[in-house]
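Technical annex B. To support the medicinal chemistry partners, we prepared a structural model of the target in complex with S-adenosylmethionine, based solely on the information shown next.
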Amino acid sequence: MESIEATASELLFYCRPGFEPDLIAELTERAANAGMAGYPRAKPDTGYVRFVPADGDLAGLAAALPLDGLIFARQRLLALHPLERLSREDRVTPILDQLQLTGLCFDSVWHECPDTNEGQSLVRLARALDRPLQAVLRKRGLLVPDAAGMRAHLFWSAGDRVQIAFSRPGERSEWPEGKLRLRTAPDAPSRSALKLEEAWHTFIPRAEWDTRLAEGMQAVDLGAAPGGWTWQLVRRGMYVHAVDNGPMDAALMATTQVEHHRQDAFTWTPPNPVHWLVCDIVDKPARVAARMADWLEAGWCREAVFNLKLPMKQRWQAARDCLQQVRKRLDAAGIPHALQARQLYHDREEITVHVRRLDA
Ligand code: SAM
C-alpha cells in the first residue's frame, strides 16, 4: 500500500473560526524552528488552514507539526489537492477517482465540514452522500475492514468543493471535526464546567484518570465562582479549596467537599501542598502564567490546568511568551515537567494549559 506522505501534497488543519491568523503564525514559526518552511492557504473566519510544504517535503513538514504540539489546531490531516466545481448531478465519481489514484486503503470514511454556519449547513449534503459512497468504496476494495486505523476524511467547504485527506491513529484527534462535544449536566453550576472536563479528556490519558484524578485527592480552584470547575473536581471525589470573592453554588457547598476562601487568588497560599491546581481567572495572561509558575515551582501543586485569556490581536505570540515564561521558571528551578496547551472546543478567546511536575 502507498504511504500517505507519498500521495498527499499538503497539511490540512481545522481551527476555531477567527483564529486562522493565530494558527498560521504558530505553524510558520514552529516549522521554521524545525528548519522547515510552508506557506498557508486560508481565508478569514473559515475555520481551516491549508499548509503547503515550500519544498515539497510533506513528511518533513508533518513531522515538524504534530497535532499534540499545536495550540490553535483542532485537527491535522494529510490532504490531497481540493476537488472544486463538483457537479450537482454526480459528486461521487470525481471523489472515487481521486481516492482510487492514491492507492490507499482505509477502514473508515468521515465527512466533515468547517465549524461555521455555512459549513454546518453542508452536513446534510455530506450525510446524504455517505451511504452510496461507502457502498462503492467497499466494492472497489478501498474501504476495507482493517486498514490499521487509516481514515479518509472528506472535508466539505462548499456544496461543490471537497478536500480529501487522511489520518492515522495516534497522529490525529479522534473526535469528529476535532471537536469534543460535551453536554452540560443539569446540576453543573456553570457551563465553564465543560472546559475542565474537555481539558482532562485532551491532556490526561483515560487509563490514568483513576490515579491522577483520584478520589480523596486535594485540589485548589483559583477564581472558582460559581463553581463549575470545583464541581468537576468534587465529582471525581476530591476535596477542594475554592478561592473567589464571589458566591459559590449552594448545592456544591452542601457536599461538604468544598472550603470557600473569599480571598485574592493571586496572594492566597494553600495550608498544605495539593495534587491539583486549576485556575479560570479573567486577567492578563502573563500574570496568570506567572502565578501558576509560582505554585508549580514551590511544589504547592503537582499538576495544573489553567486558562489564559487572549483578547489581544497577536494571540499566538502572547500565548507562546507566557508558556515560555512558565517553562523557563521550571527549568531554572531544575523541575522536570510536561506542558501542553490547546484551544479547546469549549474555549472562546482563550487557551487551556496543562502542566505536570514529573519529579517524584
Ligand atoms: N471556573 C468558574 C466556573 O466554572 O464556574 C468560572 C470562573 S469565572 C470565569 C472567573 C472568576 O474569577 C470570577 O468568579 C471572579 O470573581 C474570579 N476572580 C477574578 N479575579 C480574582 C482574584 N484576584 N481573586 C479571586 N478570584 C478572582
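Notes passed to the chemistry partners:
The chain has twelve helices and 14 strands.
The mean pLDDT is 97.
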